[in-house]
Amino acid sequence: MKLITAIIQPHALQGVADSLREYGVTGLTVTEAAGFGRQGGHTEVYRGAEYRIDTIPKLKLEILAREEDEEALVDLIVAAARTGRIGDGKVWSSDVGTVIRVRTGERGADAL
């Protein structure tokens, strides 16, 4: 089992989610996040005063997947979220030891 985690731009969510559904992914967790990478922050003007915003709003996606689907799902997320501009995000995967569906007690791939 793999946990695929992606940090993406908020505007990319619909395209990524649609692509995941088309592939057959049945579950996705989305969390609002904020951070910075190479793009750093940005400056905004409010009522004539300039403010430095050090973090950029992002979304964190988490998908539990079978090991054999890992590469295809990572490639799919990258393709759907890529704009070619700085700040598009990151995708990584981690090994998962145990997955249990709370409602039924199913384990492993059956819990997906």
TrEMBL record:
<dbReference type="GO" id="GO:0030234">
    <property type="term" value="F:enzyme regulator activity"/>
</dbReference>
<protein>
    <recommendedName>
        <fullName>Nitrogen regulatory protein P-II</fullName>
    </recommendedName>
</protein>
<keyword id="KW-0804">Transcription</keyword>
<dbReference type="GO" id="GO:0006808">
    <property type="term" value="P:regulation of nitrogen utilization"/>
</dbReference>
<dbReference type="GO" id="GO:0005524">
    <property type="term" value="F:ATP binding"/>
</dbReference>
<keyword id="KW-0597">Phosphoprotein</keyword>
<dbReference type="InterPro" id="IPR002187">
    <property type="entry name" value="N-reg_PII"/>
</dbReference>
<comment type="subunit">
    <text>Homotrimer.</text>
</comment>
<keyword id="KW-0547">Nucleotide-binding</keyword>
<dbReference type="InterPro" id="IPR011322">
    <property type="entry name" value="N-reg_PII-like_a/b"/>
</dbReference>
<dbReference type="InterPro" id="IPR015867">
    <property type="entry name" value="N-reg_PII/ATP_PRibTrfase_C"/>
</dbReference>
<dbReference type="InterPro" id="IPR002332">
    <property type="entry name" value="N-reg_PII_urydylation_site"/>
</dbReference>
<dbReference type="Pfam" id="PF00543">
    <property type="entry name" value="P-II"/>
</dbReference>
<dbReference type="GO" id="GO:0005829">
    <property type="term" value="C:cytosol"/>
</dbReference>
<keyword id="KW-0805">Transcription regulation</keyword>
<feature type="modified residue" description="O-UMP-tyrosine">
    <location>
        <position position="51"/>
    </location>
</feature>
